[in-house]
Amino acid sequence: MKLSAKKYRKHQLLQQKSVLILIIVALALFCLYSCAATETQNRQHGQIKPLYKWNGDYPLTQLFRLPAGQQELSFGYISDIETFLPIWRIFMPTEILPSVDFTKNFIVFIRDTKFYNQKYILTIKLEETTAEILAMETMSTIPLEDKVAMAMAVIPRTGITYIKYGAEIIKATE
Description:
alpha+beta
């Protein structure tokens, strides 16, 4: 049976659409499988999705409330409710205190120490026992005057000995 040129092109187009749909479905299934596999894999290497994230302004006059040895750094971590409570009340005064189990988690924070730049924690990359904070920020040259833009995230503490942000690394002692 011979097909006319018009019917042949129509048939060819239908076949191409079918192949394209199969490729899209295969890619979607692959992506779904990859996401599911990432969540269940051993955390020796990979990414840690923060349990909660916040960003906002923090007064420069209250930096002394950050954990000892971390007030001058561009990042750090909070490992107990006694430290977190006054920081939260200043950082998010109108928000309800989130429930964080500090026996299983801690809170990492980042900020700019020179300019007022909004910060957003995207994810945490885990290599061996080092949790590297991956973030995004605005780029301004507005000097710090009375407040600093800060971002926080709750992450599981299991297996984390060091925290890295940029080129700096600190030891997570507790």
